[in-house]
Design a protein that fits this description.
Strand order of the largest sheet: 1-3-2
Strand content: 25-35%
Structural class: alpha+beta
CATH class: Alpha Beta
CATH topology: Deoxyribonuclease I, Chain A
Largest sheet: 3 strands, antiparallel
CATH architecture: 4-Layer Sandwich
Number of strands: 6
Radius of gyration: 15 Å
CATH superfamily: Endonuclease/exonuclease/phosphatase
Shape: globular
Number of helices: 2
Number of domains: 1
Order of helices and strands: HEEEEEEH
Length: 112
């Protein structure tokens, strides 16, 4: 977390969204805060993995659970950023390395 703050803090224009993989946390742990950002995540059912995002406080967004797909060995979060003129959909997808890439791609393409 310190490294992330070291990267973001000195930026003249910090990123609006920071997407993360390997973002799993224990339910009882405190999620590391990043000043000026909200954090959302999708935990993994395994001991590793998970996806998350830090989203700037001034952005309006919806977490689109209706776009989530259930693929074994994969976590994903979908966000709809509500801009003044347009909406942007962002997907953060993590495939566990032990899950077969061909199976993942076949399922992913069927779901999308």
């Amino acid at each position: 977390m310190d490294k992330l703050e070291e990267i973001v803090t000195p930026c003249s224009k910090p990123p609006d969204i920071i997407a993360l993989s390997e973002a799993r946390h224990k339910e009882t742990s405190i999620i590391a805060t990043l000043p000026g950002y909200n954090f959302i995540n999708e935990n993994s059912q395994t001991q590793a993995g998970g996806v998350g995002a830090y989203i700037k406080n001034n952005l309006k967004y919806l977490q689109r659970r209706d776009l989530q797909f259930k693929i074994h060995g994969c976590e994903n979060i979908w966000l709809e950023i509500l801009g003044k003129r347009q909406k942007i959909i962002i997907g953060i997808v993590y495939r566990h390395p032990q899950y077969n890439i061909d199976d993942f791609l076949n399922h992913f393409l069927k779901q999308s």
